[in-house]
Design goal:
It is a single chain. With 603 residues, the protein is α+β, with helices and mostly antiparallel strands. The protein has five domains: 5-100, Zinc finger, CHC2-typedomain (DNA Primase, Chain A, Alpha-Beta Complex), CATH 3.90.580; 115-239, DNA primase DNAg catalytic core, N-terminal domain (Alpha-Beta Complex), CATH 3.90.980.10; 248-364, Dna Topoisomerase Vi A Subunit, Chain: A, domain 2 (3-Layer(aba) Sandwich), CATH 3.40.1360.10; 380-447; 456-565. It is built from 28 helices and 18 strands. It has a five-stranded antiparallel β-sheet, sandwiched between helices. It has a five-stranded mixed β-sheet with strand order 13-12-14-15-16, sandwiched between helices. Helix 15 (344-351) packs antiparallel against helix 16 (353-360), helix 17 runs parallel beside helix 19 (403-417) and helix 25 (516-525) packs antiparallel against helix 26 (531-542). It is globular. The protein starts with a helix and ends with a helix. The relative contact order is 0.07.
């Protein structure tokens, strides 16, 4: 539920950020015109967080986290923005009926209500059958797998009787039609009539995020036949595999408190982690992570910890997931332990709880996981493969601020590629200066595309100009009008998004000053993907906005620079497209022509 912006303004007028942060942190002290305190968001030993009473913002100058009173509470309490607003209101003793409006609930298609009722009744029947004499085979299996009675209840486990017609008969007695039963996905049509496709199997119900059962996964209890080990519900009107993460309905209850969520491969891994107290855990229905899954993980706003099987298929799947989560800008770490090929359930059964705890806490960042993968799971063979890995990592190393971290990764690259650390270090330095080459077998290949994929040197002038325009827009309505008429858009995504918010704010509140704190609230109420980047930028600006003076001449200079640099970026992007599929020699020729042309044109 989105809280009215007017309510936010009223609460903020009464809630002083210094008082609210002091409510949570005892270390707040006045220092000059601002306040300082120990930052609670990293291992801080001296006050690195500053609080601006004037602009009602905070910022940590170590990890670059910032925001206003609401975003502080949101980050500190690991809750939603709306929950943070209510918490601030509670602290200051503010109440308003608009804070308690019921959240919008998406209406359920009335045609699906009988299907939901039917499948819920099926699960009740399965739970009952688990406790019958016939269900002893499933209970013995669960005992063997060390799945406790409490877990059986928590996850709603059941058993389907071997006579599949019994399930159908039970549902008919409850008043459900054959069409209702068929729509749940359990129906198996035979010459003798309709039967339960899950007959004779242990039942794992699958719930959607609201806790409504929508499907089943059924494990066979006998051996020696050709029947598949698992039978899963087909996709139905109420069940789409790519939209559901197993156990999400339970995990969402504890994930905010824990600050993380584990992503594992199967049901048994969820049970294993639950056995050691890790309740914030979900499983994929397969090893494929979908965009819908990523959207659900993003909404949780916590660290994702990926823990798939240690065998080669599991590690390959994790490599794919790294790419997906990086593209989605989700903060993630990965379980990685050399030579551990067992899944979490096997580790728990064979080595006990402490071993599993140690395993799931063997967390590394994406860089280290990829290095470990090429070192242990899939060693590099050809020089072409080694070049690709080098090309992938050199830009990442070049962006590292710590030389110690850079050296650490350089030596790891040396180990997996065979290239000398000094040669890799040279590539990093050349990348920083805009030229990247890779030496293979004493030959020098120009890897032209890396010159422009990050283009830090070339874009620096453009970003500085865009940043100056943003600063002008924060202090002057005239600058906002200049942006709308002359510049219109920014290349930098964060600046572009913030500019749109400023323009909307000025149009909505033409008589108001442009306040960083007010903009932070508007951004926080939105669903924009780069929300945190925009909030951090606004926070940074709030601490220096008093030093910014409106300058029409500076705006005109920036407009000229932006126009010039856009043309350059356009030409470079065209050059990159021309590189595709070309040999190294042809790329070098195109590069030479480009350099001559741009030098001649004064670029």
């Amino acid at each position: 539920m989105a809280i009215d912006y007017d309510v936010l303004k009223e609460i903020k007028e009464r809630a002083d950020i210094v008082d609210i942060i002091s409510y949570f942190l005892p270390s707040v002290q006045k220092k000059g015109r601002n306040y300082v305190c120990i930052c609670p968001f990293h291992d801080d030993h001296k006050p690195s967080m500053q609080i601006s009473k004037e602009h009602q913002t905070f910022r940590c100058f170590v990890d670059n986290i910032g925001g206003d009173v609401f975003t502080f509470v949101q980050k500190y309490e690991k809750c939603s923005f709306e929950e943070a607003v209510r918490k601030v209101a509670e602290i200051i003793g503010y109440d308003d009926p608009r804070l308690h409006k019921k959240a919008y609930v998406k209406p359920v298609d009335t045609n699906l209500v009988p299907v939901y009722n039917c499948i819920s009744e099926i699960q009740k029947f399965y739970k009952y059958c688990l406790m019958t004499d016939e269900g002893v085979v499933a209970r013995e299996y669960l005992e063997k797998r060390q799945i406790s009675a409490d877990q059986q209840t928590k996850f709603g486990l059941g058993y389907a009787l071997q006579d599949g017609k019994m399930t159908i008969e039970y549902l008919k007695q409850k008043g459900f039609s054959f069409k209702n039963i068929e729509d749940t996905g359990i129906a198996l049509l035979q010459t003798s009539g309709m039967s339960d496709n899950n007959a004779g199997r242990l039942i794992f119900p699958i719930f959607d995020k609201s806790g409504q059962v929508v499907g089943f996964s059924a494990r066979k209890m006998t051996s020696g036949d050709d029947a598949p080990k698992y039978v899963n519900s087909p996709e139905t009107k109420i069940f789409t595999k790519g939209k559901i993460l197993y156990n999400f309905n339970n995990a969402k209850q504890t994930v905010k408190h824990d600050g993380y969520i584990y992503l594992v491969e199967g049901f048994m891994d969820v049970f294993a982690l639950d056995s050691i107290g890790v309740t914030s855990c979900v499983a994929l229905m397969s090893t494929k992570l979908t965009t819908q899954h990523i959207d659900e993980l993003r909404k949780l706003n916590v660290e994702v910890r990926v823990c798939l099987d240690g065998d080669k298929p599991g590690q390959e799947a994790m490599m794919k997931i790294i790419s997906q989560l990086n593209e989605a800008h989700l903060h993630a770490r990965y379980v990685s332990k050399a030579n551990e090929l067992r899944d979490p359930d096997e580790i728990l059964k064979q080595d006990g709880p402490e071993a599993l705890k140690a395993y799931v806490n063997s967390l590394v960042d994406p860089f280290d996981f990829i290095i470990n993968y090429y070192e242990t799971t899939s060693p590099l063979g050809s020089n072409e493969d080694k070049k690709k890995v080098i090309n992938h990592f050199v830009p990442m190393i070049a962006r590292l601020k710590s030389s110690l971290d850079a050296d650490n990764y350089i030596y790891k690259l040396e180990k997996i590629t065979g290239f000398s650390a000094q040669a890799i270090r040279n590539l990093v330095e050349k990348h920083k200066s805009g030229q990247v080459v890779v030496k293979v077998n004493n030959k020098t290949d120009v890897i032209c595309e890396n010159n422009f994929k990050s283009v830090p040197k070339e874009l620096r002038r453009l970003e500085i100009a865009e940043n100056m325009v943003i600063e002008q827009m924060m202090v002057s309505h005239e600058a906002v009008q200049f942006f709308e008429e002359k510049i219109k858009y920014f290349y930098n995504e964060t600046y572009r998004s913030l500019a749109n918010f400023i323009v909307d704010y000025v149009h909505t509140y033409p008589n108001n000053e442009i306040s960083p704190s007010a903009l932070i609230d508007l951004v926080s109420l939105s669903s924009v993907e780069n929300m945190e980047d925009i909030v951090n930028l606004l926070t940074k600006l709030s601490f220096r906005i008093s030093t910014i003076k409106y300058s029409p001449d500076a705006l005109k200079d920036c407009e000229k620079i932006i126009t010039e640099e856009r043309i350059k970026v356009y030409e470079r992007n065209n050059l990159l497209k021309a590189f595709e599929g070309k040999s190294v020699q042809e790329q070098a020729r195109l590069m030479d022509e480009y350099i001559k042309r741009t030098t001649k044109n004064g670029q």
